[in-house]
Amino acid sequence: MTQSEExxxxxxSRRVAHNPDEFQLVKTSMEVWGGEARVLAGGVAVQAYPGxxxxxxxxSFGTLVEPKLKFGLRDRHRVVREVFWTLDMESVExxxxxDFAAIAIEWFEEWSSGKT
Amino acid sequence: MVQRQNIAxxxxxxxxxxxxxxxxxxxxxxxxxxALEAAGNLxxxxxxxDDFSVSWLDDLPAQRELFSRDGLGYWRVLLIEVEKLxxxxxxxxxxxxxxxxxxxxxxKEMSAGQVATLVSGLTKSxxxxxxxxxxxELVAKTAVPIQRTEP
Lengths: 116, 151
Prior knowledge:
By secondary structure, chain A is mainly β. Helices cover 10% and strands 49% of the residues of chain A.
C-alpha cells in the first residue's frame, strides 16, 4: 500500500477457530478470506471484530476497505460489535468462483498461545 | 485442554433451522443465565412459568453449547424454545462476559419486537434494551400472542 500510506489503515481482528493454518495463509497472501455467512452477514462475507482482540488464537490486520458494521450493546451503549465485507462491495474480490470473499490487508499482529 | 475438533458452525445450525434474523440486547450472558435461573426458566422442559416454557431442541447437544463463527472464534449459545411461538438462539463470544447478547430468530415466527417481549418476560427483566444490529436503532417491544393454559 505504498500509494495510500498516508491513509490510515483501520485495525480489525479475527479469531481463528477451525483453521489453524489461517495465520500463515493470511501472512503469505496478504488477503483475508471469508465464506458463507448468509444468516449472520447476508451472504458470502469476511467477518471480523473491530480493533484488536487481545486473546488466544487471533490476529489483527489493517485494511483500507471500508467494512459494513453490525452494532451491539455494551453497558447499554451502542458499540460496533462486528464488521463484515460482502461481495457486492467495492474492492472485495471473489475467490473460488464466489464461494469466498477476499480483502487485501496488511498484517499487524498475532496471538497464538498454545502453539506447539 | 478442551477438545474442539467437532464444534459446529453457528451459521450452519441457524441456516438449518431457518433462523434468518438477528437482534442485539443489552443484557450480558451471565446476567441472562442468572435471570433465567431466578425466574425458574432454565431447566430443560421446565414446567410452564408465566405462559412460557424453555427447552432445548433434541438435535443440539446441550444447553450453553459452543459453536464456531468464521473469523469470530467460538460463541456460547443458549437455545430457548417458546412453546407455540418459536425458537430463539442467544449467543455471545466466548470470553466476552461483559458484552451484550446476540439473538437469532425466525422472522416467519416472530418479529423483533416480539422477541424483545419474550426475552424480557422469560428473564423478568423489563429494562433490557434491544437493538437492530444493522441499523443500530433501538427496537420497541411489541405484544406476543400468548397461548394461555388452563389454570
